[in-house]
Amino acid sequence: MSDTFTTWKEDRAYWVDVLHRIANPVLSALAERRLKRTMPVEGKIADRPLYTHLEALGRLLAGLAPWLEKGPSDGEEGQLRERYAQLARAAIDAGTDPESPDFMNFSEGFQPIVDTAFLAHALLRAPNELWEKLDERIKRNVAAALKATRTRKPWFNNWLLFSAMIETALYRIGEPDWDAMRIDYALKQHEQWYLGDGTYGDGPEYHADYYNSFVIHPMLIDITETVHELYPEWGQMRERVLKRAQGYADIQERSISPEGTFPVHGRSLAYRFGAFQLLAQIAYRNELPEDTEPAQVRCALTAVIRRMIEAPGTFDAEGWLTIGFCGHQPSIGETYISTGSLYLCSTVFLPLGLPAGDPFWQGEAEWTSKKAWSGLSVPIASALK
């Protein structure tokens, strides 16, 4: 075994520390209702302040949610988790209260449908900490915010899942007027866009980017997980959705180089290691392929996180994320990218919802490309229909 490995305890502590560095500026500011006043808005076009704050809230909580819901309740990590759960609830209040200076835009322009969906995804992932523990006033505001996006028409691509995720959350929180049609349309359209080998088209065409992991697989999994019992055809999709996701997760694990890097291609590279949300989610669900050890995924993801988060310029002087892939690289951000967008990187931390005794956090193992480039035996990759 390479002497560059850290122990699993060090890995978990490192993940928690990085998550803290990423989350603290956003949630602390929101809890004090000063996010709009203090968060910088780096971007290429002038309209991003209209959207960036909801981006930061929804995307960050989508990644934190499993840790908030299932993380430890004792010890230093447990105390930190409890603090962040309280901050997260205060942040949701600040962002959805019409009287708050940090009240967010849920109904102007197209972008709000995207990040309201990430917020909805967080509610599905942490229903106790991020929904049940809210008081009734906040719950009413959250439901109203979700419904406000219904005036936004999604594009004919992965955006259909944003509408579906919002309606799924409305169903989950008990709103009687949730819209089954928006869910049905998104699920059935993605069935038509499936291309094979665990890959969906982003719309009718294939796109060589990471949107199968940023959005498509993670939302398909949690939507079908939540609503599969309601209609027979939705239930029939559930197994196919998971099998395809496992196939794509295998591809993702194999794409991590021995050095902890991965291919630089496609849109939205400024989401950094959020590109591995799907692999992190399959690990969190304990549904990795049989020949993939959970520890090898942890070691691979840790290598990626270290390569990216420790690059100079990743954070500004006040601790906010900057636009870039490995460090501060403003040129890599598309026109829709701004400071709030970057917090989708938090989705790599989904396995923090697993207890410390889970195999994911136990032992050390080399990942596939590290073994392959060392001349060691690796399992054959097989195509998935």
Automatic annotation (TrEMBL):
Pfam family, one: DUF2264
Domain of life: Bacteria
DUF2264 domain residues: 11-366
PANTHER family: DUF2264 DOMAIN-CONTAINING PROTEIN, LINALOOL DEHYDRATASE_ISOMERASE DOMAIN-CONTAINING PROTEIN
Protein name: DUF2264 domain-containing protein
